């Protein structure tokens, strides 16, 4: 071995000497990696728990109308002469309709963009509200405060579904009236739907958007609904680059706030095309 090679051999031997600590901080890197793996495992476990709970809740929601349907039909089969056929068919159709609604909501929640592809378009939120209300027959009066030319860009059918779900929720829990407001807030187009019902506790204002949530307050699902409407509404809002949150209402009930990027208009009020 030449003298020229000796320093290199000495360096290698010294660098791997037993008991020596690597100069590269490998122990620290390994600890950090272990922490990241533990955090990832914990997140996965939480996800699996949510998925199992969702499957359990979905099964329960589907089984309830199915059980009622089966009971009605079995009773009619046992006592055909005592069965009011028209009434039986009405109840059967009602349960089938509920099943269709739940299944449709589950599919939409799984894939908010499912169905016929639609291009985002520029729309006036006040016109969106008027159009949605014209198709409804609501129990409580709806008070409107709609600023003109509040323009937002999105898929009309999806934002219409968001508004429809919020109106359904408000009508379900309102005591006497519902308020809808459209306005600008700096560079935000804001649509709010408020009711004068029991409201939502601060600690539950985010949880209420989880599927099949059961609140401890009077806004429980004993009032009807599938328990999926608000979850779908938030997903569709986010799919259109917006946000949806819950807060207190000026009338002591609940208020749901949809915020979307405000699309610009010229001084005359005409919308500026967005490419």
TrEMBL record:
Segments traversing the membrane: none
Top-level lineage group: Bacteria
Region (Disordered): 1-26
Coiled-coil segments on the chain, per record: none
A Pfam short name: HisKA
Enzyme class per UniProt: transferase
Reaction equation(s) it catalyzes: ATP + protein L-histidine = ADP + protein N-phospho-L-histidine
InterPro entries associated with the record: HATPase_C_sf, HATPase_dom, His_kinase_dom, HisK_dim/P_dom, HisK_dim/P_sf, Sig_transdc_His_kin-like_C, TCS_sensor_his_kinase
Keyword set includes Transmembrane helix: yes
Matching SMART domains: HATPase_c, HisKA
Keywords: Kinase, Membrane, Phosphoprotein, Transferase, Transmembrane, Transmembrane helix, Two-component regulatory system
PANTHER family named in the record: SENSOR HISTIDINE KINASE TRCS, SENSOR HISTIDINE KINASE YKOH
Name of protein: histidine kinase
Native source organism of the sequence: Streptosporangium subroseum
